[in-house]
Amino acid sequence: MMQAKKVALLGLGTVGSGVLQILINNQAKIVQNAGCQLVPVKALVRNPAKHKEAARQIKLVTDFDEILHDPEIELVVEVMGGLHPAKEFISQLLQAKKSVITANKDLIASCGPELVKLAEENQVALRYEASVAGGIPILNALTHGFAGDEITQVAGIVNGTTNYILTQMSQQHMSFASALEQAQKLGFAEADPTNDVTGKDAAFKMVILSKFAFGTDIKVTDFHYEGIQKLQSFDVEQAAQLGYTIKLLGISRKIGAQLFVEVAPALVPANSQLAQVDNEYNAVAVQSEAAGTSLFYGPGAGSLPTANSVVSDLIAASRTQQPFNLYNCQLSLAAPSSVIDPYYVSMIVPVTTAPAIVSLLAQHQIKAADVQAVDDQAGHHLVIQTEPVAQQSLVNFKQAAEQVGAQVTTYRILAE
């Protein structure tokens, strides 16, 4: 008789429902890849009345202990979201010798090392492919596809909400507020989009990507992240005229024996692959010594795309309890003085201040590759593309320019 392993779900919302659907509909292929049947038996929900259809396919429970203390359940999928009680539930499950698959980026970015250690101590699996870029198998690619290669940079569009907003701003010439409102109406943005538009969601994902690409454990408090809520239509239009598209990018780059990580709007060459990633889609560009540049593209969220990543983890966890990521190389974080890139600098300045700004550029050793003056209702703009310059020099210049009355915006320019 074919061996069967029983599966429980914590949560039966958008992703949980997708997991259940795939497990039921694709059982024949799953059996061949897992070497056993994966049978969904219980789902933890708050209100069983909301899941009448699912109740025909799986037993609904409201008490976590019914899953924790069921000796027949070997695999548990956590798709509740949030830090608590997800952390407590996963910790107890791992201690009970049950393998766990989660899509919880906030939790893995905040408590990943602790939970990974707990899984190893109890010789069970903890996998979380779906925590980054939804349906794109980027973590497995970094673990296996680049196992012997030296990765030098990972640059990603890893938040669909902000990418949708930026697409509307650049292609439909919408304001940030109008694009956000449309994203909410279409379901691409939450009612409270704070984590998305401030860059925090992307920062969580870069914590995880940095661990898989470079073996280094970091926290969101270790690096600078910012979002798109202050982005002006003027800069979107100016970037387009200069041959760029503005994207919210997460960047993790090796600089010598150090690591630079950031989440911020950046100018991407309009003819590059990343610039073609529109609306709610995600993409991660991986640069490595042997393979060059590889682009991983696909839906960053959604019921079935994310559930597909969860089920892939389920199959892997059914076969092995080996840690998801074995790579460990603790790099120190790079100082701003060693991070060198070209920049887009946009300033609103009093006309009489312009000579002082030019003097400050020279004082901080910032060379301009291109300078344009633009007047509109907001005032007199200076738009500058710099030659490669140390991040610290640009920070110092911005502070000095603001002291003489300039309003300064700076965005990194991603090299082609």
List the helices and strands and how they pair.
Elements: E1 4-10, H1 14-25, H2 27-34, E2 37-44, E3 59-61, H3 65-68, E4 73-78, H4 86-95, E5 99-102, H5 105-121, E6 126-127, H6 138-145, E7 151-157, H7 160-171, H8 176-185, H9 194-197, H10 200-214, E8 224-225, H11 233-241, E9 244-255, E10 258-269, E11 281-288, E12 292-299, H12 303-319, E13 332-333, E14 340-341, E15 343-348, H13 354-363, E16 368-376, E17 379-386, E18 389-390, H14 391-403, E19 407-413
Parallel strand pairs: 1-2, 1-4, 2-3, 4-5, 5-6, 8-10, 10-13, 10-19
Antiparallel strand pairs: 7-9, 7-11, 9-10, 11-12, 14-18, 15-17, 15-19, 16-17
Helix pairs in contact: 1-12, 4-5, 5-10, 7-8
CATH superfamily of the largest domain: Dihydrodipicolinate Reductase, domain 2
The CATH topology of the largest domain, please?
Answer: Dihydrodipicolinate Reductase, domain 2
Overall pLDDT: 95
Which structural class fits the helix and strand makeup? alpha/beta
Secondary structure tally, helices: 14
Describe the structure concisely.
The chain is of the alpha/beta class. The chain is built from 14 helices and 19 strands.
Explain what the structure shows:
The protein has 416 residues and is α/β, with parallel strands linked by helices. The protein has three domains: 4-134, NAD(P)-binding Rossmann-like Domain (Rossmann fold, 3-Layer(aba) Sandwich); 138-299, Dihydrodipicolinate Reductase, domain 2 (2-Layer Sandwich), CATH 3.30.360.10; 339-413, ACT domain (Alpha-Beta Plaits, 2-Layer Sandwich), CATH 3.30.70. The protein is 36% helix and 28% strand. It is built from 14 helices and 19 strands. It has helices at residues 14-25, 27-34, 65-68, 86-95, 105-121, 138-145, 160-171, 176-185, 194-197, 200-214, 233-241, 303-319, 354-363, 391-403; strands at residues 4-10, 37-44, 59-61, 73-78, 99-102, 126-127, 151-157, 224-225, 244-255, 258-269, 281-288, 292-299, 332-333, 340-341, 343-348, 368-376, 379-386, 389-390, 407-413. Strands 7, 8, 9, 10, 11, 12, 13, 15, 16, 17 and 19 form an eleven-stranded mixed β-sheet that branches. A six-stranded parallel β-sheet has the order 3-2-1-4-5-6, sandwiched between helices. Helix 4 (86-95) packs parallel to helix 5 (105-121). It starts with a strand and ends with a strand. The mean pLDDT is 95.
